[in-house]
Design a protein that fits this description.
Distance between the termini of chain A: 22 Å
Radius of gyration of chain A: 18 Å
CATH architecture of the largest domain in chain B: 3-Layer(aba) Sandwich
Order of helices and strands of chain A: EHHEHHEHHHEHEHHEHHEHEH
Shape of chain B: elongated
Oligomer: heterodimer
Number of strands of chain B: 12
Largest sheet of chain B: 6 strands, parallel
Strand content of chain A: 5-15%
Radius of gyration of chain B: 26 Å
Helix content of chain A: 40-55%
Strand order of the largest sheet of chain A: 2-1-3-4
Largest interface: A-B, 70 and 60 residues
Number of domains of chain B: 2
CATH topology of the largest domain in chain B: Rossmann fold
């Protein structure tokens, strides 16, 4: 299969290992990965902060880049950015009165997948041949869980990783408190939510906390780092690419 | 006056609330407990999703035909001996209710728990007019006796624990006698106190969960039976109902009476459901007044996206699952409607007077985690409405002096809509490595990044962006 990588701006600039792992994993599974180099950002931050007008140009750019990409599917190592493509792009276009763009955005969204969706639903694999000898707990990020409904697909993938001990995260479905600009605008509330998430993670005794979103991991990892915890945050793609 | 707007923006009010560790423990414990019970109660219904869809569809129909349904309700209430009054806003509703009570000569009224009367500040208004309004719902009584504000739609005293409630009762109930803090003892003390009020009251004031257009029937859904005392014992009953509470047919209640108890109190069946249609000689109140309250609702109805907030049946399920509400409690929202539903309802009901309006901060008081939408029995897509209201707020401020946030967002959009500029910006971030400590963490950033690093580190930017890695590893291949 020919798969276009929608790297997401956060992974591109700050967490490239999750994107590199996505490429290496898909290539190892025998697929061709292409990277449309003109891609930038899905515009989620703008939409969620109220700047929908500014987001229109970003949506248009994203649609142009990915409708031109010669590929069977588009994949992103982020539930949140795929959520934006699937649930916000057409809405932003319609709000701006651009029905044609909305329909093009829907067509792009229809072939855009979060990594665990692509692996389990489209490629039909659960055992990706990974080896990761660590104790791991999984945080199902809000947008993967409630916007994309990825369900237990990431857990199915993790259960097939050799050497990996999976421990259940209590109150896993609760938010980590990130929420994009919420983490800045409502810093005290965001931090209070994060404290409970960190306590739940530390209570599992896991060495690693994983998730399908670099943004939530940045928040959780930033908090764990601040309190001097040795627990690391590692993107799901990096675990699945490990051998 | 309305109790729909606080004095300060949410982040500031939340900071104070978060410092109250006792409140956080009480609310955290209570919401976690209700949340777990609700999940079990909903799991028992194989047709739960169909029920939600039915509830949502019925409410869509109500909003589409509101004027016609309200007039039908008015005709049927009138035909059965009730009197219907129309109130544009809180002041008008308060004036009408005060006039009706005055006409009976009563100095004291008993009240059924009601969000509409909380919303319009009826108790405060009546007090100023020399009329005592006694809350008879146990939790509302605790709030009233404690000179406090409700912090939850359904469980207004959720921020209190039983030791605090005992203190309030000892202080405020004149002849309560020795009292422990066992729930049964507290309930018995309230019962003794309230019985006297029920038996002497000549006027009751209530809200309504539903008003049936085709029959003129009003319905109140409660758990204690205290509401029923008020609805049946006094001679005069005054009901204040938000105009969105009308439903077309009596049979529609079958849907809502399944959705509401399981969503709100995790009960299979509601304990006390009182319904009445007009007046009946020798049975119940002999005089019945229905006050239909707008107070901003038609403004909400005019927004095709935001109007879904009017579908709310006040179950509170969204409060109990909200990560924000769970930590801040309800007072930080500044309105009688806290939590996710309050964040979309309060600012729409009041309208927003510029970005300094405390209610302008409410649509941002959410991480958009989506838990509220999942539990909403009438499928209100709260996260999408929050995002919509954020855009409305930003758009309303356009044309004025741009804020720091405006400039940052516009600059980011300018960079991100150009691949060349985006790539340059990424390269420019690499020197950010210089901000990192020896252990590769960034622990302090200048404002506004300082808000992030207040409690969270950032990793140093990588040596190579993904794009640069791709160019090195893949470009030669093509």
């Amino acid at each position: 299969m020919r798969i276009a990588l929608f790297v997401t701006c956060l992974a591109d600039g700050l967490f490239p290992n999750s994107a590199i792992a996505t490429v290496e994993l898909l290539e190892r599974l025998g697929h061709e990965v292409v990277f449309p180099e003109h891609q930038t950002c899905c515009g989620q931050m703008h939409v969620n902060t109220g700047y929908q007008r500014e987001a229109v140009a970003l949506v248009r750019h994203h649609v142009e880049v990915f409708e031109d990409a010669a590929c069977d599917a588009v994949v992103a190592p982020s539930g949140s950015c795929v959520g934006s493509v699937r649930h916000q792009h057409a809405m932003v276009a319609r709000r701006a009165g651009d029905e044609a763009l909305a329909q093009r955005a829907e067509a792009v969204a229809a072939r855009t997948y979060e990594l665990s969706e692509l692996l389990v639903d489209v490629l039909g694999v659960r055992d990706v041949g990974a080896y990761y000898p660590h104790t791991v707990t999984y945080h199902p990020t809000c947008h993967s869980l409630r916007m994309l409904r990825v369900g237990d697909k990431p857990l199915q993938l993790l259960r097939h990783v050799r050497g990996l001990t999976l421990v259940e995260l209590p109150m896993a479905e609760s938010c980590c408190g990130f929420g994009g600009t919420f983490a800045i605008k409502n810093v005290d509330t965001s931090t209070a939510i994060l404290e409970d998430k960190m306590a739940a993670i530390l209570g599992t005794g896991a060495q690693v906390c994983t998730a399908g979103d670099s943004s939530c991991l940045m928040h959780i990892g930033g908090g764990l780092s601040r309190i001097g915890s040795a627990v690391r945050t590692v993107h799901l793609a990096e675990i699945l690419a490990s051998r | 006056m309305s109790n729909l707007r606080g004095d300060e923006p949410f982040p500031r009010a939340a900071r104070k609330a978060l410092a109250d560790t006792q409140m956080r423990r009480n609310v955290g414990h209570a919401t976690r407990s209700i949340r777990t019970k609700r999940l079990a109660a909903v799991a028992e219904c194989p047709d739960w999703e169909e029920l939600r869809l039915a509830g949502s569809t019925l409410k869509d129909d109500v909003l589409a035909r509101l004027p016609e349904l309200l007039e039908q309700l008015e005709r049927n209430v009138t035909a059965h001996g009730g009197v219907v009054h129309w109130a544009r806003d809180a002041d008008e509703a308060n004036r009408i209710v005060t006039g009706l009570i005055r006409a009976t000569g009563a100095q004291e009224v008993v009240k059924v728990k009601s969000m509409a009367t909380q919303e319009i500040g009826l108790n405060e208004h009546l007090k100023a007019e020399g009329i005592a309004a006694i809350e008879t719902d146990l939790a509302e009584l605790i709030v009233q006796l404690g000179n406090d504000w409700p912090s939850h739609i359904l469980v207004p005293a959720i921020h209190r624990n039983r030791a605090e409630i005992r203190e309030i009762f000892l202080r405020e109930m004149p002849d309560v006698g020795p009292l422990g803090d066992e729930p049964r003892e507290l309930a018995m003390a309230a019962r003794t106190y309230l019985r006297r009020k029920f038996l002497s009251a000549r006027v009751a004031v209530s809200g309504a969960n539903f008003g049936v257009a085709e029959t003129g029937t009003l319905a109140v859904v409660e758990s204690e039976g205290n509401g029923r005392m008020c609805l049946t014992l006094p001679e005069t009953l005054v009901t204040v109902m938000g105009i969105e509470k009308v439903v077309p047919r009596f049979a529609d209640l079958a849907v809502f009476m399944q959705l509401l108890p399981r969503s709100s109190t995790a009960e299979r069946m509601n304990p006390y459901t009182s319904m009445w249609t007009g007046v009946h000689p020798g049975d119940g109140p002999q005089e019945f007044h229905l006050v239909l309250l707008d107070n901003g609702r038609t403004r909400v109805l005019a927004d095709p996206v935001g109007r879904d907030a009017l579908k709310c049946i006040r179950c509170s399920a969204c409060l109990n699952v909200c990560p924000v509400y769970e930590r801040t409690g309800g007072h930080a929202y500044g309105s009688v409607y806290p939590g996710p539903i309050g964040a979309i309802l309060s600012p729409q009901l009041t309208g927003i007077r510029g970005h300094h309006d405390p209610n302008a901060s409410l649509p941002f008081a959410s991480s958009l985690c989506g838990a509220c939408f999942d539990v909403c029995p009438v499928r209100i897509d709260i996260p999408s409405i929050l995002v919509h209201l954020r855009a409305e707020l930003v758009d309303a401020e356009r044309g004025g002096l741009p804020t720091g946030q405006d400039l940052a967002m516009k600059a980011a959009a300018w960079v991100m809509r150009s691949p060349r500029r985006f790539s340059m910006a990424e390269k420019a971030a690499t020197p950010g490595r210089l901000l990192a400590n020896a252990d590769h963490r960034i622990t302090a950033l200048p404002w506004p990044g300082s808000k992030w690093t207040a409690a969270r580190d950032l990793p140093e930017p990588p040596r190579l962006t993904f794009r640069q890695w791709w160019a090195r590893t893949h470009e030669g291949r093509r």
